[in-house]
Amino acid sequence: MNLQLRLATPADLPEIMRLERAGFAADIQETDITFAERLAAAPDGCWVLDNEEGRLLGYLCAEFWAFDPAAPAAKFARDHSAGALHRLDGEEVYISSMVVDPATRGTGWGRRLFRDAVAAMFARHNRLRSAILIVHPQWDAARRIYHAEGFAEIGSVPDYFAAAHGTRMEAIIMRRAGV
Fold first, then answer.
1. Closest CA to 63 of 16, 34, 17, 96
2. β partners of residue 133
């Protein structure tokens, strides 16, 4: 399969949203408005895996933030304003969302998308000194990728994900220094 990693464009929004809906449960999906704002505010942070036939097989969206060693939980709010937090001179890349088409899971393309998009952002923006993300505690495959790419757990966001019987579950905050 011939896939190309490239920067996303506004024309990719329908495919990004298709992937968002296919990849996440309804209660954690973000809105079209959120993704449109991310593309507008942080165009160097949104990457796609393109099969060159008009269908995307994955996306990764990120914002550049001011580095904050405390990583306050409030910054990770779902559907937060990318325009309010993104800084062109940011020192930390916040990987806000990533999905690989369910049909390609287990093929290694998710790890490649993650690794190559993060490396490309660090190569393009030499001021970046760390990367940060949140992950569901039960997403073992994603956590394996993040650990293998040098991310370590540094904290949590309480009550982030819906859980059984109306309860909530924390999100794990993970960070990696440098490239």
1. 96
2. 95, 174
Q: Taking the complete model, does pTM exceed 0.85, yes or no?
A: yes
Burial class (CB in 10 A: 0-12, 13-18, 19+), 28: middle
Give the pLDDT confidence of 122-176 residue by residue, as tens digits.
999 989 999 999 999 998 888 988 999 999 999 999 988 877 777 888 999 999 9
Q: What is the CATH number of the domain that holds 115?
A: 3.40.630.30
Angle 91-46-146 from CA coordinates, rounded to 5°: 65
Instruction: Look up the domain containing 133 and give its range.
Output: 4-177
User: For the chain, how many structural domains are there in total?
Assistant: 1
As a whole number of angstroms, the distance between CA 174 and CA 165 comes to 27
Residue environment code for 59-77, b if the CB has 16+ CB neighbours within 10 A, otherwise e? bbbbbbbebeeebebebbe
